[in-house]
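quick one
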Amino acid sequence: MGRLIIVSNRVPSPRERTQPAGGLAVGLRDAVRGGSSMWFGWSGNQAEGDGDPEPSIDTVEGVTYATIDLTESQHEGFYQNFSNGILWPLFHYRVGLMNYSRRDWQTYLEVNALFARTLVPLLKPDDVIWVHDYHLFPLGQALRDLGVTTRIGFFLHIPVPPWSLVRSLPGAELLLEDLQAYDLIGVQTDEDADNLNQSFRVNGLTERARAFPIGIDPHEFRAQAETGADSGEAERLHASLRGAALVLGVDRLDYSKGLPERFRGYEALIARYPEHRGKVTFLQVAPVSRGDVEEYRVLRRQLDELTGRINGAYAEFDWTPIRYITRPIARDILAGFYRMADVALITPLRDGMNLVAKEYIAAQDAESPGVLVLSHFAGAAPELDEAVLVNPYDADEIADALHQALTMGLDERKARWSKLDAEVRRTTAGSWARDFLLALDEAPRAPPTPAA
Ligand code: ADP
Ligand code: F6P
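structure w/ adenosine-5'-diphosphate:
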């Protein structure tokens, strides 16, 4: 059997305890364990010179990590501007936030070609290649152009809007054509698969998308949550609550996560249900993400302002309604916080999957599980439909859902949680990767396409 070659922009650092937040790295790290595999991507560092960078190679627990540096201008055009300033808002249905520029598209193509050039010498003939996410749409075609004939699959971790929105990107059909170089394209939900296949169809291309919802490793996460709940940090959090219920939010600081809407929803709870004042604390952990992109800086200022305003209006000298942290937190500590939380408040305006929702379920104590309040627009919602589902745009609906969650009896909590837990255990990170790779093995081969 050949090796599995994972390619993604973000690669976790195998030797660090605190990892950057993000579902792709977490989901895949759980999936690659135990096989012969190589993970190729960006190092997170800046390249010194202008020539092609040499990959740095590190092998940890059977997985080889090969990463390359990017120059400042490559990073800016490829990652900040095209991937996160154009594709990210577009695919999250936020066309108005898209800052299109032809020059950034050019850099995006150049960096994809660089990834292909530096990856090809590391490949063996029977490797299977699995490319991840919107940073690398054209990579499959760039590899084919260099003569790679092995199987190449692609997985998109973010949502896919209908063609009527995708076509707002000038030249969107070129991206769709590039996607034809993959033998199989996985997306998170049936809705995403329908939308992508519709885009292929109206452009006269082959429908190659299928839904493979990503999962977590629930056993490992549960064990981490049990350890984390016994940690000194969890003890300190518990003591500081002084009996108040804990509502927890955990997300990268991203406008797709609906954070201002969530803060207003929580404000509506304490405004309209005064019995919760002093009896509940909302802890939002939102590590800064993509801080060089203007829309993310605007969001950060907005949240700073909202937190200050809400706390200023409702705090007592011995009670703070919102605690807001913008640093990453070690995974086991975070898992312990999930276990302690009475309610998880996860209300993205759009999200590919949202692994935090699945992690929260896995972390619960079966004897007294907490309640998940989840947006209809998370990719996890179709699977986790026993959660209290909300429309995240309606602050009053969030407030009512929080009240329902905070006052829910033990029997209902247990009944909902056991169904949710069965779902989280049904599709795991491991089964997701296995299902995709099996389907890739059986997929009809993409026809060879002429080099551009
Ligand atoms: P996204 O991929 O958009 O970031 P997900 O919810 O799918 O969203 O994945 C986020 C991942 O990052 C989860 O595994 C979560 O545990 C982790 N994470 C989120 N916030 C933090 C944080 N503050 N510190 C450490 N890990 C975090
Ligand atoms: O899951 C979506 C995603 O964009 C991943 O591709 C990415 O690794 C993660 O979120 C975190 O974002 P970034 O890599 O830009 O820090």
